Amino acid sequence: MALMGVQLVVSLLAASIMQRMAPHCSFARWLLCNGSLFRFKHPSEGELCALAGKQMPKQNRRDRRQNGESKPLTVPKDIDLHLEKAPVSVIDALVLRFFLEYQWLVDFSVYATGVFLFTECYYHVVDASKEVNIGAIWCVLTVLFSLKTLHTLMSHYFRSEEGGERSVCLAFGFLSLLVAMLVLVVREDYLEFGLESGFSSLFDNLEIFAKQQGYADWSIPVTKLTVKLGLAAVCAYIGALLAFPGLRLAQTHLDAVQMNSDRPFIQILLHMSFMSPVIVLILWVKPIARDFLANAPMGKTSVTIVPSAVFDSMRLWIIVVLCVLRLALTRYHLQAYLNLAQKWVEQMKKEAGRIAAIDIQRKVTRVFCYLTVVTLQYLVPVLLILFSTLSLKALGDFSWGMGAEETPGVTPALVMPTAAPVLPGGLDEDEEGVEDMEEDIQATVAHLSATFAALRSVLTPLFFRGFFAFLTWWVAACQVISSLFGIYFHQYLMQS
């Protein structure tokens, strides 16, 4: 297997460019600070006093505390307050919470997409079936980093002492566990993930590989039931991670639709984007998707709309297009979130009584401070679905073309080769040092190549098809559950 090839050079070049260009050119920074998003500035105490029709106290807040006055400055709630808009700038974004995590993940995703596109073109031009697919490794790393980012956000909710964020995450985790256990017992005739054949391929190859390594009496210490229980636990964890992103998506979707009430085309795109996880779910329901398109009933006969061999490629294209649609509508959702500050002010005007000026300032400022958190909650689920689909394509040996595809078989396990022995020669000390260095490099490359060869013999495309198909479907299912609950919460529970 050629490990040190063109792909590795391009991968290292992309990593170097990402590290050097991040302070100067960042897609994540451009997404928030390109002038299309507007935040609302909090009013000063002087402005609030002028709107309330009274003079600003001569002593500031610190002087009042030193003089023993603990009563805050209050103003009537029904004052004619209009917040000032300002475009989000780089200086504003740098102080936001989790901004560095957001910038790194989004930029890494952009470069991972570039490396994946290069590897796809490279595999199309050159027969590189024996090489390691570097683009697939970047996609898998993006999935892992996305999960790590969601874990960081969830740990922030767990540390919070206010509200019931911790209870919400636990409740969605237990609900996801129950749903996952039900899904995993559904037959392949209804949900065509390919998990059964994938696990069978994995266990068979592990036994063959163990016997070739000298462990003749070794057998798999776990059963498929144990693996499925572990997979259900992972599903529960992912469901807990996607609880608040789904709830936030429901809120921003409703606000974005209301914000674009005079633009019906944008509203249609917003509704399509919101329903895209449902389409992803249907694509793996065999009686509705594959069987219906391959044998569509037309009176007493059946018509083949899409051949079964073409359906896998079409499914990949549909998911990618839906993810691109959701990414293209990011600005509308983020602006709908930022408008919550003005929306809260309009709601405050309808109430009676007085409110502290510091409370108004905190409420308006808090909306902008959580902008990157909301951006991550919107983007990370999309990145999970997109890059798990790209991993499914690359590691599952699918094709973007609409030609027939063969079902991948089980690759026999390979014996790990050993490095060739070094023969003594009559070289001088400098030449011996150079030769030793070259031999060490060759031995390292040979060892890595053998390791990847062993992994490819155990983790076959049949296993990757089942695993990443289920992962893509499950992320979409978690989004459907949490976002629909969020719609019910914001439309009915908050109204009552």
Automatic annotation (TrEMBL):
A GO CC annotation recorded here is: membrane
Per the UniProt entry, the signal peptide is 1-28
Q: Which InterPro entries match?
A: Transmembrane_161A/B
Membrane topology for this entry? Multi-pass membrane protein
Compartment(s) of residence: Membrane
Q: Which domain of life is it from?
A: Eukaryota
Give TM regions: 135-155, 167-186, 225-244, 265-285, 367-390, 467-489
Q: Major place of localization?
A: membrane
Supply the alphabetized keyword list: Glycoprotein, Membrane, Signal, Transmembrane, Transmembrane helix
Family per similarity comment: Belongs to the TMEM161 family.
Annotated protein name in UniProt: Transmembrane protein 161A
- What species was this sequence derived from? Lates calcarifer
What gene name does this entry carry?
TMEM161A
